[in-house]
Amino acid sequence: QITLKESGPTLMKPTQTLTLTCTFSGFSLSTSRVGVAWIRQPPGKALEWLAVIYWDDDKRYSPSLNSRLTITKDTSKSQVVLTMTNMDPVDTATYYCAHLVYYYGMDVWGPGTTVTVSS
Amino acid sequence: DIQMTQFPSSLSASVGDRVTITCRASQGISNFLAWFQQKPGKAPKALIYAASSLQSGVPSKFSGSGSGTDFTLTISNLLPEDFATYYCQQYDSYPYTFGQGTKLEIK
Predict the structure, then answer these.
(1) R_g (Cα) of chain A, nearest Å
(2) Do residues B2 and B94 lie in contact, with contact meaning Cβ atoms separated by under 8 Å?
(3) Which residues pair with A101 in a beta bridge?
(4) CB of A41 within 8 A of CB of A114?
(5) Does residue B92 belong to the interface with chain A, where contact is any CB pair within 8 Å?
(6) Measured between CA atoms, how close is A34 to chain B, in angstroms?
(7) Taking a contact as any Cβ pair under 8 Å apart, which residues of chain B between 48 and 77 contact chain A?
(8) Are B46 and A106 within 8 A, CB to CB?
(9) Is there a contact between B35 and B45 (Cβ–Cβ < 8 Å)?
(10) Which regions in chain A score pLDDT beneath 50?
């Protein structure tokens, strides 16, 4: 059974750097075609795809946030970490990580973690 | 970026009804289209991948179709638990993008 869980700070101040960790089980990020993606959802708004990292360390980012995002993996710990620099109140959202397989898309999501940015 | 447009943005229906939600891509995405269901305060749940294939454990009352730029999600025999917000998402090219969502409400 695949499970994922996001963790990180719930409250941040503007300009700070956000570090979110996705801890997963039931799969390995060394398996071909497998990846972990990050998605966020501001309150009352639609989903926004942020980044993905694959088994071969290929990384892709949303162009609108590319300069602020870094995604890394620790296969031995079954974790993926997303950092976002220069946080702003508009970055207030629930952040999700999801298991992804080429062709099959994002099939299992974590419960999400809410991050509020306020001075 | 590929823009995904869903319509309608909201839809009222009754238990037992059959409804269809449409998703249009701003350029061709072959069949790299997924559908998700989201209930308030919960993470999205994957329903369909590759435009028409059901994710594991998803009942056959959900069906998807389409290819290229135009796609549909059909839900038959609506039950109270089906009333939620539905999102389409393309995964043909980066950045993967979502539609704005369709809120399905009980009439």
Answers:
(1) 14
(2) no
(3) A34, A105
(4) no
(5) no
(6) 14
(7) 49-50, 55-56
(8) yes
(9) no
(10) none
